[in-house]
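Running this now, will post back.
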Amino acid sequence: MQLKIKLFLLLFYTAVVAITTLAFLPDYDALPPIVSFSDLLNHTVAFTTLFILLRFAHPTLQVYYTFGILLTYAFWIELVQYFLPTRFASWSDIGADSVGLVLGFIILRLLQRKS
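Update: finished.
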């Protein structure tokens, strides 16, 4: 396996662990303002990043599988949050995650055109 792919795999799984940890923190609002200032923006940026990292980590993975895997992850986060006493599930979070996936797709398309 190429070193570049290994690096993106490490970055992708590190991002998944970090995002999952933040998603399940009992008091998200107690985080510094740089992290908690806009929940929907955080979702969008997180899933844009995940999309790009996953595409680079698994370059042969079909785009629709990338969307499917990450949307499943988004629904899983909200499902778990539904059962946590200090968190709540939100359709708007899944919407922001979806916007992030589309942005990640667009960014990669634009980068491919420039190269």
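The helical segments are 3-24, 33-36, 39-57, 63-83, 91-114. More later if anyone needs it.
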